[in-house]
Amino acid sequence: MALVTFRDETATGRALAEFSLSDLFERISARELVRLRVREEVARHNAAPSHHFRGLVEPADAEAELNGYRMRTPRKLDWEKQADAAEAAFARNGFLLLIGDRQILDLDTEIDLIADPVVSFVKLVPLVGG
Description:
Layout (H helix, E strand, L loop, with lengths): L1 E8 L5 E10 L2 E3 H18 L4 E2 L8 E4 L2 E4 L7 H13 L3 E5 L2 E3 L5 E3 L5 E6 L7
Parallel strand pairs: 1-10
Antiparallel strand pairs: 1-2, 3-9, 4-6, 5-6, 7-8, 7-10
Helix pairs in contact: 1-2
């Protein structure tokens, strides 16, 4: 079984936040990794719902703020909806997925977590004004 570290990074590689999960299969698809990450962050939020959600993608009826999203009212989130939104965000280049030193371009790519135990997410911000 493998231990994986999920890390949010800036475009320059500076770590913003990270957490680890243990007892994962040694080989897993990038899609499964994204969904695992989202399931874990939603579970942590749902344990103590608040106005602030620190996650990969913006929940419905929330607005972006520094280091997360602000919701109008504290509430529990549906991890599957968030995971579907994360897959859609990946498809439209909303974030980069880096495994070790390589960028993953397809969520069906199989990952060896023993060889590459660090999964980095780099959120991309659209440029304003072209």
